[in-house]
Amino acid sequence: MFKTFLKGMAQGWNKQGFALSLTQFKALHFLSKEGPMMVSQLAAALNMTPAAITGVTDSLLAEGYVEKERAADDRRVVNITLTKEGKAAIEEAHNKQKEIMGSYFSILPDEDIAHLRRIFGVLISELDKK
């Protein structure tokens, strides 16, 4: 059921007319949280191949949301860095995401929200252990 819910949320994302695809949003989100990353690190974080993430970052580069920088000590290493435009885009997307999530969960009584927080807390704790 949770998988169905996530799928519905992804479809809702697409229907909202965001300037970013869900994958692009996730890439910008990781960059905003972790800072500059190598293509291989970003690919691993998103559970994608480096070739696939290159396509994503190329589109973000074309939009001006990221920059590619070669490492000074090893020219073979390319770091992906968030630009000012990328920071603004991710902030806008986060705000819209909060609205969407609020609309999904606003139908639940406070008691159910408390149960969800507890359940997700347990699941996140277990993930952190692994």
UniProtKB/TrEMBL annotation:
Keywords: DNA-binding, Transcription, Transcription regulation
Gene3D superfamilies: Winged helix-like DNA-binding domain superfamily/Winged helix DNA-binding domain
Lineage top rank: taxon: Bacteria
This protein's record includes keyword Secreted: no
HTH marR-type domain mapped to chain residues: 1-125
InterPro entries in the record: HTH_MarR-typ, Tscrpt_reg_MarR-type_CS, WH-like_DNA-bd_sf, WH_DNA-bd_sf
Record PROSITE patterns: HTH_MARR_1, HTH_MARR_2
PANTHER family for the chain: TRANSCRIPTIONAL REGULATOR, MARR, TRANSCRIPTIONAL REPRESSOR OF EMRAB OPERON
Protein name: HTH marR-type domain-containing protein
